[in-house]
Amino acid sequence: MLNATWLDTFTTLCEVGHFTRTAELLGMTQPGVSQHLRKLESQVGKPLISMDGKSFTLTPTGEAVLAVGTARRIQERDLQETIQIDDPDVGDIGIGCSGSFAMWLYPHLLERMHHAPELVIRLNAAPHTSVVTAVLSGGLDLGIIADRIDHPRLDAVKIGREELCLVVPRSCAGQDLDLHHLNELGFVAHPDGYAYADDLFSLNFPKDYKGADRLNIRTFVNQIGQIPIPVAQGIGYTILPKSGIDAFAGNQDLAIIHLPKPRHHDLWLISRRGRTNFARVAALSDLIRGAAEALG
């Protein structure tokens, strides 16, 4: 049985990545942190970290011990939640979704927190696979993803769908734009943009579209909130889910071109089995459903 105190110190050290800050966080001295590490290494029988100046990397044994420490924290948190009063306005909750939906959802979460000062909400914008992994591991309570998933430890509920939008400057509103005109305008690319282009353009321009790698790239942006800015300024077009457009503060300078064959992505709310029995998780689930429905 690993010593719980030493394991907690080691887990915190791995999360923080710095001996001095770990000591400050735990109310210890730096030698005290080092002593806990040495005692845990002695108990395990192998080194847990490899020092490189003031930084360190985990050994394979260290990675295994960290996994135990992380799992124990999740178990202890679940135990505390079980024995505490189940209040929808109290506690910690983690939510993961795409960057586009995060922009749309966050104002709804802020309003909720105004009415629940003791509710701590962590919103993580992450790719689909990362959201699923975090929900399964207990790192997140709820996830919103675009594809249905069947997993024995997960509940998945369809909460709506949103349109994949071809977004152009306001000056192009009402124009009948084909792929040639769009290439003249130039594509504002982003990490998901190439897949979105393949999805939407192959459906509407099957004869002319040759793949995202053949698009005329005007610029590339990897921050979701920045993607519509060049379009609003008349520099190119882009493709985004409707949530990313509706949440953009300058969307009055944008126009959505409705192509003959629209493309929609479903929205699925996922959680670990039984997790929505907690009052705050159930309340946030209802809030997320309402936010998804408001997308229309």
TrEMBL record:
Keyword DNA-binding: yes
Molecular-function annotations in GO: DNA-binding transcription factor activity; transcription cis-regulatory region binding
Keywords tagged on the record: DNA-binding, Transcription, Transcription regulation
Superkingdom in the source lineage: Bacteria
Pfam families, A to Z: HTH_1, LysR_substrate
Ranges of residues in domain HTH lysR-type: 2-59
Cited PROSITE patterns: HTH_LYSR (PS50931)
InterPro entries: LysR_HTH_N, LysR_subst-bd, WH-like_DNA-bd_sf, WH_DNA-bd_sf
Protein family per UniProt: Belongs to the LysR transcriptional regulatory family.
PANTHER family from the UniProt entry: HTH-TYPE TRANSCRIPTIONAL REGULATOR (PTHR30126), TRANSCRIPTIONAL REGULATOR LYSR FAMILY (PTHR30126:SF99)
Name of the protein this chain belongs to: LysR family transcriptional regulator
Protein source organism: Falsihalocynthiibacter arcticus
